[in-house]
Design brief:
By secondary structure, the chain is of the alpha/beta class. Strands 6-5-14-15-16-13-17 form a seven-stranded mixed β-sheet. The structure holds flavin-adenine dinucleotide.
Amino acid sequence: MNSRNRLIIAGAGICGLTLAIALQRKGIDVTIVEQAPALKPLGAGLVLAANAVKALTEIGIDQEVLKVGKALKKLVIKDRRGRVLTSTDSEQISRRYGAIDNFTIHRADLHDVLLKHLQPGSIQLGKQCVDFKQNSEGVTLYFQDGSIINTDYVIACDGIHSIFRRKLLPQSEVRYAGYTCWRAVIDNPLPGINMEETSETWGQGSRFGIVPLASGKLYWFACLNADASSALMRNYTVEDLQSRFNNFHDPVPALIKNTLNEQLIWGDIIDLKPLTQFAFDNIVIMGDAAHATTPNMGQGACMAIEDAVVLSNLLGKLSSVQDAFRKFEGMRLARTQKIVKGSWQLGRVAQLENPILAQLRNAAIRATPSSVAEKQMKFLYEVSFH
Ligand SMILES: Cc1cc2nc3c(=O)[nH]c(=O)nc-3n(C[C@H](O)[C@H](O)[C@H](O)COP(=O)(O)OP(=O)(O)OC[C@H]3O[C@@H](n4cnc5c(N)ncnc54)[C@H](O)[C@@H]3O)c2cc1C
């Protein structure tokens, strides 16, 4: 791209930060505008798969990210009583795809590494973009503090509620998945927990995940079927969760008990109904702004990282930024749509409430040959960044 072009990235989440690093490494100048007044460590754990690690390798920061995370050996799905329904050998996948799979990291640690690799002065904080106008000259951004920035191009990485997407595609739809979720990171996991595997336990309209992190910490999540934005769920305490999960196998009740109310992070699980357009002349949307997904496949951040690498490669190669945006759309639509749809369906199966259907589901998973799961993995991991 032409070096006189001015690029603004809206949003300093995983997507915006990774993109800025990837562009700066190609000598492309970029500014990030971020609504938060300060970058605070927040969030819980993340599971990153081989496709994200491959993308991080492309921009040369994989080793530093891996250093603050934890690679795990197995990914297991269990029934409520703790019997294994299916188990995936993550080490074997890592070997096959040449990148570490089933890798866990605290969100704050990932942000720290990303921020460290950003050129100083790249982020303008406290800049909440509230509106924009696009014409043949470029894009004008309007901020809540009354300031205005004129730029040539905008890359919108402003998350699921993106103001860019909402204005460009007013018909786009944020969907509630039908279940709500609590997350916590605790630093006192019980002795005897297998810190080498991630697991999910599927009940009836309820699910519990255990995700060991580096430094002996553990991230857990608990999902329950519920109405959207339920005041009852919002006010749930550790004690309420204990009563809902007390019929789950060990160590689920004890892990909840070992958690403090102030460690709970609550939110409804939502996604974005798959879109058919990401590029809009001088603006492109990416990350959760373009294809937010339910967390069932652990692919939201992975796709955001992939997006960043794909777009930076295109911008480094093509002379027209608009062409790069259009090509990006062409390369990313089908893949991200497939993941969003797959994750939505997986969530419906995992959250089945009817006891007979839940039993049939468990039997079907037990009977599914590992080759089926492997075929799905192949699609995820054989990603092209060029
Ligand atoms: C419960 C849960 C568990 C998950 N687990 C996993 C997992 O294990 N693995 C995985 O790969 N993914 C997971 N995800 C998904 C992952 O968190 C997201 O896909 C990822 O964070 C998206 O990054 P992003 O940068 O696109 O968006 P965001 O992280 O939402 O960042 C958007 C940024 O833009 C800023 N912003 C927003 N609006 C404006 C504005 N108007 N002006 C300026 N700045 C603005 C925000 O402050 C924010 O910093 C999970 C998600 C959830 C909800």
